[in-house]
Amino acid sequence: MLRGILTLLLFQFIGECFVKLFELKIPGAIIGMVLLLLFLGVRKGSFHALDTSVFWLLRYLPLFIIPAAAGIITQVDTISKEALAILTSLVIGTFLALAFSAKLIDILISRKENR
């Protein structure tokens, strides 16, 4: 399990280094996740230690959300001022994610049928 957690932390660290090095506006954790996805794609799968660590972290995921929820509660006045922009971005983002997911599933199903 330690190897899996160290793998996750390593990719997050590499993502943070990319952000600092290239002065990107994307969070380092996101870049780290993309790099981990590419690594797992090249490797053609995961390994047991990473799977164990991920399942353990997912079990406690609601605890990681509590600080973000508390931060949102302290910003009620800002959120109410920007409610239309927030709602618009949520709706557009949801539809884009649904469209992308549907297209990806369609591509994956057609690839599987071709094999």
Number of strands: 0
Quaternary state of the chains: single chain
The first-to-last residue Cα distance is 35 Å
Classify the secondary structure makeup into a structural class.
mainly alpha
Q: Taking Cα atoms only, what radius of gyration do you get, to the nearest Å?
A: 18 Å
**Residue-averaged pLDDT:** 92
What is the tally of helical segments?
Answer: 6
Largest sheet: none
Instruction: Extract low-pLDDT stretches.
Output: none
**Which overall shape is indicated by the principal axes computed on the Cα atoms?**
extended
Report the β-strand fraction as a percent range.
under 5%
Indicate the percent of residues in helices.
over 70%
Element order, helices and strands?
A: HHHHHH
- Structurally, how many domains make up the residues? 2
What report would you give on this structure?
It is a single chain. By secondary structure, the chain is mainly alpha-helical. It folds into 2 domains: 1-59, no CATH class; 76-115. 87% of the residues lie in helices and 0% in strands. The chain has 6 helices and no strands. It has helices at residues 2-22, 28-43, 48-59, 61-73, 76-81, 83-114. The longest helix is centred in the last third of the chain and has 32 residues, at 83-114. It is extended, with a radius of gyration of 18 Å. The two termini are 35 Å apart. The mean pLDDT is 92.
